Amino acid sequence: MEITSEKYSVQYDAAAKTIICRGALRLAGMEDYAPIVQLFDKVLEDHPSTLRLNLQELEFLNSSGINVLSKFVLKVRGKADMQLIVQGSTAIPWQERSLKNLQRLMPNLELTWD
Amino acid sequence: MAQILGEFSDHLPVSQEYLTIVLSPSSAPLQQRWHNNGLSADFMADYFAAFFPRSQDTVSQINSKVEVKSAVSFIANELLENAMKFNDSTTNYPISITLQLHQDSLVFLATNSLKAQTVDHFQAFIQEIIAGDPGDLLVRQLEKNAEDDNQIGSGLGLLTMMSDYLAKVGWKFETVQEDPEIVIVTTMVYLMM
After folding, report:
1. Domain coordinates of chain B in residue numbers?
2. What DSSP state is assigned to residue B66?
C-alpha cells in the first residue's frame, strides 16, 4: 500500500510491519488527509502485533497532519494486543519538539531515535 | 476600538529586518493558493535562517540554522493556514504575514478579516487557551478531535506553537469598516531565542 505525491509519500511495508512517511505533509484539513487515514485504517485491519511508524524522513508535518497521526495513535491505543514503535530522527527539529505528545497520548508507545 | 487578548504588544521596538507577504483575495481564490502557504513559509524560514546562529547566548534552543528554519516554517505555515481558513471571503481584505527579527526574538504578525458572527466564539476559545497549560490543553484537544471528525479550527496549530515551541501568542481585534462591517484580527507570535 502506498500513497505518493510530488511532496510526500506514505507507504505500508506489510512484510516489515512498518508504515513509512516521507517528505512534507501540509495538506489542507481532514478531507485531504482522508486517503492517508484510509491507509492507516487498513494497516489496523492487518493487525500486526508490533507496528513500526517510521518518520525518519518526514521533514514537515502541519497541525492537521499532527491531528491525523494522533488519531491513529489513539486507535492503536484502543487495541490492547498491539505494540507501537515510533521511529524519529534527531536531525529533524520538529520531531524532537512534538513527537513526545504521541507518547503522552499512549504512554506505552515506544519512541526511538536515529 | 481595538480589543487585545493574550500577549499582544502594540509597542514593539522598530525592527530593521523584516519580511511581509500580502495575499489579495481578488487575484486568485484563496482556496486555490493553499499550496502557496508552504512556499511562503519555507521562503521566510530560509531567508531568516541566514541570520543564525547568533553570537549571543540564547534562552531557547532556537539558535542554529536548522532549528530556526524548522520553527519558522511550522509557525508561518500554521498562521497562513489559519488566516485562510477563517478569512471572511466576502470582503476583499488582504491576508498578510510579517516576520520581524528582534534582538532577542522573532515576531510573527498575521492579519486576516473575520466573519463578524464568529468573533465571540473565537475570543472565548482564546480565553480558554491562554488560561491553561498549553501542553495539557494540546493533549486534551488531540483526544477530543479523535472523537469528533468534524472539528475544524481546533486550535492545534496555536497550541503546538505554545506548547512545543514555547511561543507567546496575542491577538488584536479591530473593526476597520462599519458598513458593511469588516473585522480583522492580527495574531502575534513571539518566538524567544
Report:
1. 3-9+15-192
2. H
Are A101 and B138 within 8 A, CB to CB? yes
Angle at A78 between CA A77 and CA A81, to 5 degrees: 80
CATH topology of domain B3-9+15-192: Heat Shock Protein 90 (3.30.565)
State the pTM of this model. 0.95
* Grid cell digits, residue B173: 481585534
Contacts of A26 in chain B (CB under 8 A): 35, 37-38, 77
Q: Where are the beta strands (DSSP E) in chain B?
A: 3-6, 17-23, 95-101, 105-114, 168-177, 182-192
Query: CA dihedral defined by A5, A6, A10, A11, rounded to 10 degrees?
Result: 80
**DSSP code at position B10:** S
- Report residue B112: phi and psi, to 5°: -150, 160
Structural domain boundaries, residue A46: 2-113
Confidence of residue B34 (pLDDT cuts 50, 70, 90): confident
β-bridge partners, B105: B192
> Which of A60, A63, A93 is the closest to B157 by Cβ?
A63
If one counts the domains in chain A, the total is 1
What are B45-87's pLDDT values in tens digits?
999 999 998 876 665 667 789 999 999 999 999 999 999 999 9
Residues of B in contact with A66 (CB under 8 A): 142, 156, 160
Chain A interface with B: residues with Cβ < 8 Å:
7, 24, 26, 28-30, 60, 62-64, 66-67, 70-71, 74-75, 91-94, 97-98, 101, 104-105
Q: Do A62 and B152 touch (CB under 8 A)?
A: no
Average pLDDT over residues B142-167: 87
Q: What is the CATH number of the domain that holds A85?
A: 3.30.750.24
At B126, list the grid cell: 482564546
